[in-house]
Amino acid sequence: MKYPTIEDAVGKTPLIALQRIGVADNQRRGNVVLAKLEGNNPAGSVKDRPALSMIRRAEERGDIKPGDTLIEATSGNTGIALAMAAAIRGYRMVLIMPEDLSIERAQTMKAFGAELLLTPKSGGMEYARDLAEQMQKEGKGRVLDQFGNADNPRIHYETTGPELWEQTGGRITHFVSAMGTTGTITGVARYLKEKNSAVRIIGAQPSEGSRIPGIRKWPEAYLPSIYDASLVDQLVYVSQDDAEESCRRLAREEGIFAGISAAGACWVAQEIARTCENATIAFVVCDRGDRYLSTGVFPA
């Protein structure tokens, strides 16, 4: 008998209905708001899907082989997922991360055996991405490049999108996703639009001055090349305060222990619901709240 491995535990995550937040108003309008629990993946986030996809496909092409060094700039979730995938498949993993991101993320990456390089807070993810490219040019390893690697949105086209379609019985009308690397929103949007071109795709982005881990508004020069703006119907801006309050509400009112970017997507989904009737709105709970405990978002 062949038993499943940890890789087989990635994907097929639950889609559940919110029971309290906004429910009374949504019921009056005939709406339902659904949460895709990607924190149920083994390394705790939606990034488990592209992490394994990028490594597997690179192996299939002969670009990398076990024992090689992989390099990636990350704000956290992709780094954790890649650290897990590298541990599973036998790679040395070097992750580059801005120094101001949560200590839980750094500790989790190290637990999986990854080596961590911290970059100045002032440089943000842009500096981390530049350093990764520089290290690759110097022959220090291979950059998988979540921001420009087609195997990132491809796995969401192949798995996340079909799961949402099947779990809603094809009734999904709106899909909301936080936008970071944009792999999730691009891959899912492509699949859902092929199934029903009327499905609305909404991206959650941070309002001016907000710093929400996992959600980015990139300068034009750093906009991920995998992003396809033609697939996104609307951008909604969420403030840091609204995202953090939604994070606390999800935990205490819904029992959903989610990260701040996931809560930002939830806030956007509720805003969209106020403008709709008879809608089935799904948003991505991209990670769990335990990797944000040191940020102070949850009361001590």
Automatic annotation (TrEMBL):
Q: Which residues form the Tryptophan synthase beta chain-like PALP domain?
A: 6-287
The record, for Gene3D superfamilies, names: 3.40.50.1100
**Which molecular function GO terms apply here?**
cysteine synthase activity
EC nos = 2.5.1.47
Q: Which CDD domains match?
A: CBS_like
Q: Name one Pfam family in it.
A: PALP
Which co-factor is required? pyridoxal 5'-phosphate
- Pathway(s) per entry: Amino-acid biosynthesis; L-cysteine biosynthesis; L-cysteine from L-serine: step 2/2
The entry's keywords: Amino-acid biosynthesis, Cysteine biosynthesis, Pyridoxal phosphate, Transferase
The yes or no answer to whether the keyword Acetylation is present is no
Q: What is this enzyme's catalytic activity, as reactions? A: O-acetyl-L-serine + hydrogen sulfide = L-cysteine + acetate
* Protein family: Belongs to the cysteine synthase/cystathionine beta-synthase family.
NCBIfam families named among the record's database cross-references: cysKM (TIGR01136), cysM (TIGR01138), PRK11761.1 (NF008735)
Name used for this protein in its record: Cysteine synthase
Q: Which organism is it from?
A: Curvibacter cyanobacteriorum
This protein's gene is called cysM
